[in-house]
Write a structure and sequence with these properties.
The chain is an alpha/beta fold and 436 residues long. It contains 15 helices and 19 strands. It has a seven-stranded mixed beta sheet, with helices on both faces. Strands 8-2-1-12-19-18 form a six-stranded mixed beta sheet, with helices on both faces. Strands 3-7-4 form a three-stranded antiparallel beta sheet. It is globular and about 65 Å long. The chain starts with a strand and ends with a helix.
């Protein structure tokens, strides 16, 4: 019996992992990438957001025995390190359970690792490939060289600017909606300190929230930090005190984040040379056409503020493998998965507001600590963040519980405060009775 054949378009993160998953199941796989091989060319920084690898992504990597390989170069981040406007720094753990943390990984390094693993698994990798035509119904591809390829399955894993999605949309197979944030992002850099030391706390995701804008920094194994500004692209009417890329400069960075800027010797060059990237959400009403399926950002690009873009894409791969094992159609997989992809898109937008506007608040920090303690006492009552980041609970259920569990938390917190008050009154009364 001839092994089924797959063509994967896209050699970023999701495509090579999907290749490993299909090879594990005995498929013949060819991966096509329009760019050159990053392993030969070297990864160029300046337009990336470091990645936060968490439970869902790790589990997908473990399915193809890549988790240890990837995690050996990762740095644990146990919480948010908040840098407020007064220069004070506070740590907000992600969980009351010390075993729960996320991992900082390099996008370029991970991409090369996944491509290497796919090639070792037997995936045929083809770089610098132009695609002239795609037949989604028959999973056929005609290359710029004139060569024609056919398969049983065509996977569009070619990112937010997906060519395959455009072909499907032009054929009327789907409607894609793209909503852009008024914010963009720019990468900056904090180098290692003396002797390769970290100039900021190592095992943390650093955030400089400023209300309407923020900067984050993730640690790298060499002691450096990849920093990302999230600023409005244009100034808001009447908000002259707020930063924007339209009016910003390296000097504005220094004024807004003085403690970080003091550690950025390349600030002027980074500001001038690194482009402003776009941030947006893409939703498709369908992900499939004939023998063709979209996965990852090609199907559901999201903003990066929950650290789930890559993790959701990797989870796509794991769940697709399980769907193939059950003999399900690509339509069945897409219909089921789309509900959760839409949910994490909503959660990511919600978390942007929380990160930039609320994390610097002492009240927010106290409330988070109380919720984490309650979730440790009542394991069934995990915070939404913990459900999303440290479990396999479907994103749609985590979103549904965001409001209802918030009400439960408020009730328990009120009960906790009330019970403490009653206990204090009883102790005072007992002490007074003994004194009399």
């Amino acid at each position: 019996m001839t092994a089924p054949r797959a063509i994967i378009i896209g050699g970023g993160l999701v495509g090579p992992l999907a290749g490993c998953m299909l090879r594990q199941r005995g498929w013949q796989v060819t991966l096509l990438e329009k760019r050159g091989d990053p392993r030969a060319q070297g990864y160029g920084g300046g337009r990336s957001i470091n990645l936060a690898l968490s439970h869902r992504g790790i589990r997908a990597l473990a399915e193809v025995e890549l988790d240890r390989r990837v995690l050996q170069d990762a740095i644990p981040m146990r919480g948010r390190c908040i840098h407020d406007a007064q220069g004070d720094v506070t740590m907000q753990p992600y969980s009351a359970r010390s075993s729960r943390f996320i991992n900082s990984v390099s996008r370029g390094g991970l991409n090369c690792t996944l491509l290497e693993a796919a090639e070792q698994a037997g995936v045929e990798l083809m770089f610098d490939v132009a695609i002239d035509a795609v037949d989604c119904d028959s999973a056929g591809v005609r290359l710029g060289s004139g060569a024609a390829l056919e398969a049983d399955l065509l996977l569009g894993a070619d990112g937010a600017g997906s060519q395959i999605r455009s072909v499907m949309a032009d054929a009327g197979a789907l409607v894609a909606e793209q909503v852009m944030l008024p914010h963009g992002y720019k990468e900056l850099h904090i180098p290692p300190g003396d002797g390769g030391s970290w100039q900021l706390a190592r095992e943390a995701l650093h955030i400089w929230p400023r209300g309407g804008s923020m900067m984050i920094a993730l640690p790298n194994p060499d002691g450096s930090f990849t920093c990302t500004l999230f600023w409005p692209k244009e100034s808001e009417p009447g908000a002259h005190e707020r930063v924007s890329f339209a009016t910003g400069s390296a000097d504005v960075v220094r004024q807004t984040y003085p403690d970080a800027a003091a550690r950025m010797p390349s600030l002027e060059d980074d500001w001038s040379n690194n482009p402003v990237g776009a941030l947006g959400t893409i939703r498709c009403d369908r992900w499939h056409m004939g023998r063709t399926l979209l996965i990852g950002d090609a199907a559901h690009a999201i903003v990066p503020f929950y650290g789930q873009g890559m993790n959701a894409g990797f989870e796509d791969v794991r769940l697709l493998g399980e769907s193939i094992d059950r003999g399900e159609s690509v339509e069945a997989f897409a219909r089921k998965r789309k509900v959760d992809a839409d949910a994490i898109a909503d959660l990511a937008l919600h978390n942007f507001i929380e990160m930039r506007d609320h994390t610097a608040s002492p009240q927010f920090a106290r409330r988070q600590r109380r919720r984490q303690r309650l979730s440790k006492l009542f394991p069934w009552l995990q915070t939404t963040y913990e459900q999303v980041t440290f479990t396999d609970r479907p994103y749609s259920l985590a979103l549904r519980s965001l409001r209802s569990r918030g009400m439960i938390f408020h009730g328990l917190l009120a009960w906790q405060v009330t019970s403490w008050t009653i206990l204090a009154c009883l102790l005072v009364g007992l002490a007074l009775s003994r004194m009399s």
